[in-house]
């Protein structure tokens, strides 16, 4: 693809490098893999770097590379010492162990966003910047928009409540954009993602020498957000001692850097968000009631996606066009597929929808996705409402073929008769029709499972070889293994 971006993997451990390589190849990303020694040489040669993944030991040399490439986002994975990547603004996240698909695609997505937000590429907002990123015409969404408009221009603190992935951050950004603070920064802080002992210095900054490792004076997020909006995400995860300190800032509008004596004025609007039930947390003494009332001046609830299923077609459109603008690839869904998605419970809300679309673009870029192409858990229409990948009739025919497999037919015309004869003479399965009959379908299914198990056992559960032995395509065998829940016993 034109303008294709590449992921660079820098790791001295060959086995781990290979693991990452396998996963990246699976999700269809373009990548290069280097050891630390090779990296200098190649960095200059690869023009379009999406992101660099660092694992193992981040040496001083690698730290210099991170520092020297502020426009390139870095991701780390399985580090010996996470401290080695602290403090770099271009470290955008960590890949979990074991590697997982959803998280990897999210970080890849974030890397694209990082590039898009670089100043040189900064795009002018479209015709309706107001609610550009807040899609939905359903009643609950209209209510959310109404509340945003009401509160944006005031000085009130806002508390956004809603399940994970419902768009709390989108709402927070819209409040900021609509307010008269929009010329100053919107600064997000994820209170749950920052280690408790670093949170204070993260929020309020520190003076040089305030603690081991504080080698220079550093501004905190409150100072960075001066004149603008501070978004305290996952406020429910804020440790109690910090809750006390935050309450003080909200009351007195001043704070001190860690290790500093000087009071600094804070002209900052606080928007907080959480997916937790703060009132429950107050009852169990996990969240301070006084802070709750300070923050909860103006609550906004973001509705779960299952409560506004009519917005799904619009959201699909919006998310597909976002991916297509970022990655140059698109996908289309049939009406039936959209109908099926509207039946889904969406525990992960819009984020889950966005992940699904990204996955469908990877698998079916520029194609049309029907119900049959959706991952199993998103297929909610009756089987006969769409063309199954594997019609029952075909399955039966194949099972019958398998039943007779192993017999050499001399004359095709006589094949069934001869096969039955041989089967009968060898005491095989065909002559065991009980007097009161049997359920042929079930019988054949059992037989099929049995033969598939044998083939898999024989081949050490290597699917490709087993499929060959059964005379079927690998994907068909995978489909059948899923259908019958066949797994290697540990
Ligand atoms: N109404 C919406 N219109 C368009 N996109 C949306 C909408 N709501 C959410 N999204 C998208 O869904 C994703 C998740 O949204 P966001 O991060 O704001 O959710 P969240 O409630 O903060 O989730 P979490 O609790 O997991 O942090 C983002 O990519 C966001 O752009
Ligand atoms: Mg969020």
Explain what you see.
There is one protein chain. This protein has 490 residues and is of the alpha/beta class. It has four domains: 6-121, Rossmann fold, CATH 3.40.50; 139-303, P-loop containing nucleotide triphosphate hydrolases (Rossmann fold, 3-Layer(aba) Sandwich); 306-385, Helicase, Ruva Protein, domain 3; 392-483, Arc Repressor Mutant, subunit A (Orthogonal Bundle). 43% of the residues lie in helices and 12% in strands. The chain has 19 helices and 14 strands. It has a five-stranded parallel beta sheet. Strands 7-8-11-6-12 form a five-stranded parallel beta sheet. Helix 12 crosses helix 14 and helix 15 crosses helix 17 (440-458). The chain is globular and about 95 Å long. The chain starts with 5 loop residues before the first strand and ends in a 7-residue tail after the last helix. The model is unreliable at 121-131, 383-391, 403-421 and 423-429 (pLDDT under 50). It binds adenosine-5'-triphosphate (ATP) and magnesium ion. Residues 168-169, 233 line the site of magnesium ion. Residues 133-136, 162, 164-170, 275, 302, 315, 318, 350-351, 354 line the site of adenosine-5'-triphosphate.
Regions with little confidence, pLDDT below 50 for 5+ residues = 121-131, 383-391, 403-421, 423-429
Strand content: 5-15%
Q: From the coordinates shown, what is the CATH architecture of the largest domain?
A: 3-Layer(aba) Sandwich
Name the CATH homologous superfamily of the largest domain.
Answer: P-loop containing nucleotide triphosphate hydrolases
Largest sheet: 5 strands, parallel
Number of domains: 4
Unique ligands: adenosine-5'-triphosphate, magnesium ion
Got a strand count?
A: 14
Shape descriptor: globular
What is the overall pLDDT average?
Answer: 84
Strand order of the largest sheet: 2-1-3-4-5
């Amino acid at each position: 693809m034109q303008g294709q971006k590449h992921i660079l993997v820098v790791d001295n451990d060959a086995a781990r490098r290979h693991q990452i390589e396998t996963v990246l190849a699976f999700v269809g990303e373009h990548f290069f893999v280097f050891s630390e020694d090779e990296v200098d040489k190649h960095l200059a040669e690869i023009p379009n770097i999406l992101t660099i993944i660092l694992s193992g030991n981040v040496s001083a040399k690698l730290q210099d590379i991170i520092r020297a490439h502020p426009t390139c986002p870095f991701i780390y994975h399985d580090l010996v010492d996470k401290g080695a990547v602290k403090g770099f603004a271009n470290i955008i996240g960590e890949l979990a162990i074991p590697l997982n698909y959803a998280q990897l695609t999210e970080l890849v997505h974030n890397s694209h966003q990082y590039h898009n937000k670089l100043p040189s590429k900064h795009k002018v907002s479209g015709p309706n910047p107001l609610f550009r990123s807040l899609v939905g015409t359903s009643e609950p969404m209209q209510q959310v928009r109404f509340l945003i408009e009401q509160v944006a221009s005031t000085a009130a603190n806002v508390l956004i409540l809603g399940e994970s992935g419902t768009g709390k951050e989108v709402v927070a950004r819209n409040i900021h954009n609509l307010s008269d603070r929009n010329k100053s920064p919107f600064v997000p802080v994820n209170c749950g993602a920052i280690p408790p002992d670093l949170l204070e210095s993260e929020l309020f900054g520190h003076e040089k020498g305030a603690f081991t490792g504080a080698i220079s004076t550093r501004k905190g997020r409150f100072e960075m957000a001066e004149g603008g909006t501070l978004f305290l995400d996952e406020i429910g995860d804020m440790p109690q001692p910090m809750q006390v300190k935050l309450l003080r800032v909200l009351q007195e509008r001043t704070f001190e850097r860690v290790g500093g004596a000087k009071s600094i004025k804070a002209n900052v609007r606080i928007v907080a968000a959480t997916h937790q039930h703060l009132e429950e947390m107050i009852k169990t003494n996990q969240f301070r009631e006084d802070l709750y009332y300070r923050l909860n001046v103006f609550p906004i609830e973001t509705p779960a996606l299952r409560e506004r299923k009519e917005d799904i077609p619009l959201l699909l459109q919006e998310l597909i066009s976002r991916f297509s603008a970022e990655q140059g690839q698109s996908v289309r869904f049939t009406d039936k597929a959209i109908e099926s998605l509207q039946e889904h419970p969406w525990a992960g809300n819009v984020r889950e929808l966005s992940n699904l679309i990204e996955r469908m673009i990877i698998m079916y870029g520029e194609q049309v996705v029907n119900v049959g192409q959706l991952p199993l858990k998103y297929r909610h229409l009756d089987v006969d409402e769409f063309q199954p990948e594997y019609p029952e009739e075909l399955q039966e025919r194949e099972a019958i073929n398998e039943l007779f497999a192993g017999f050499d037919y001399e004359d095709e015309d006589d094949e069934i008769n001869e096969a039955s004869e041989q089967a009968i003479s060898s005491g095989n399965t065909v002559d065991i029709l009980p007097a009161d009959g049997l359920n042929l379908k079930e019988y054949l299914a059992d037989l099929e499972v049995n033969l598939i198990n044998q083939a898999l056992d024989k081949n050490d559960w290597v699917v490709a070889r087993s499929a060959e032995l059964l005379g079927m395509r690998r994907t068909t065998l995978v489909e059948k293994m899923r259908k019958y829940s066949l797994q290697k016993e540990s």
